[in-house]
Design brief:
Layout: E1 11-15, H1 20-31, E2 35-40, H2 43-53, E3 56-59, H3 65-79, E4 84-87, H4 102-130, E5 133-138, H5 142-145, H6 151-171, E6 176-183, H7 188-191, H8 195-203, H9 217-224, E7 235-238
Parallel strand pairs: 1-2, 1-4, 2-3, 4-5, 5-6, 6-7
Helix pairs in contact: 1-2, 3-4, 4-6
Length: about 240
């Protein structure tokens, strides 16, 4: 990366940090000088990931208020501050809607939309006390356009867009910006797609390929920076042009 960012002295929380985009964001912020905390339900994997990138691991379920409150308390206890929150955690439970169970529906919304809400809410008192904060949420093209077999996922991601814009309006007075990226990256979710179908999907991307997870970092870094203090309520596509 030719771009350089300086997050020295800042505390950054990244959810879904055990792999994929979350792991690469953890690496990016740690390399940029931040104290990084990776939250993930998979305690073993997030511990390995944190050791790999020079971050600290917090095993926890973002759909649990108790786990989120405990995580925020740990960050405050260890660093005394929270500057940046990246709400990236997510799961898939793909089925056509008439085959979706209540658990398929509720678990996806609880992790994506619920986790984004819970962590942001828990950090707001700390942001307000300092008059500063950056929240970056991870949404999806599917949240705007839908996708067969993903009614639950599309609903959750659309909800994150609405949450981003509402929180941006509510928190601006406290010096807090709230933005989102809409990525299109080669993650574990994409890797699970059959190769013929993945090639078909890639052909529909103007740049002709899925992005690497690391290619999401510059966009998130900008939105999380002090320099982006006049940018809020934005959903930035980082998707190779698929949303055109």
């Amino acid at each position: 990366m030719n771009l350089s960012f300086d997050f020295t002295g800042q505390s950054v929380i990244v959810t879904g940090g055990a792999r994929g985009i979350g792991l690469e964001l953890g690496r990016f912020f740690a390399d940029s000088g931040a104290d990084v905390f990776l939250i993930d339900y998979d305690g073993e994997e997030v511990t390995k990931a944190a050791a790999e990138v020079g971050a600290r691991a917090i095993p926890g379920d973002v759909s649990s208020t108790e786990d989120i409150d405990r995580a925020v308390e740990q960050v405050i206890a260890e660093t005394g501050r929270i500057d940046v929150v990246v709400n990236n955690a997510g799961i898939l439970r793909d089925k056509v809607l008439w085959k979706l169970t209540d658990d398929d529906w509720e678990s996806v919304l609880a992790i994506h939309a619920g986790g984004t809400f819970r962590l942001t809410r828990a950090c707001v008192p700390h942001f307000r006390a300092r008059g500063y904060g950056r929240v970056v949420n991870v949404t999806s093209y599917t949240g705007l356009h839908g996708n067969t077999g993903q009614a639950n996922y599309a609903t959750a991601k659309a909800g994150i867009i609405g949450f981003t814009k509402t929180a941006a309006k509510e928190l601006a007075r406290f010096g807090v910006t709230v933005n989102a990226i809409s990525p299109n990256a080669e993650t574990r979710m994409v890797a699970s797609i059959p190769e013929d179908k993945k090639a078909e999907l890639a052909a529909g991307i103007p740049l002709g390929r899925f992005g690497d997870a690391s290619e999401m970092c510059a966009a998130v870094g900008f939105l999380a920076s002090r320099e982006a203090g006049y940018v809020t309520g934005v959903v930035l596509p980082v998707d190779g042009g698929i949303s055109i």
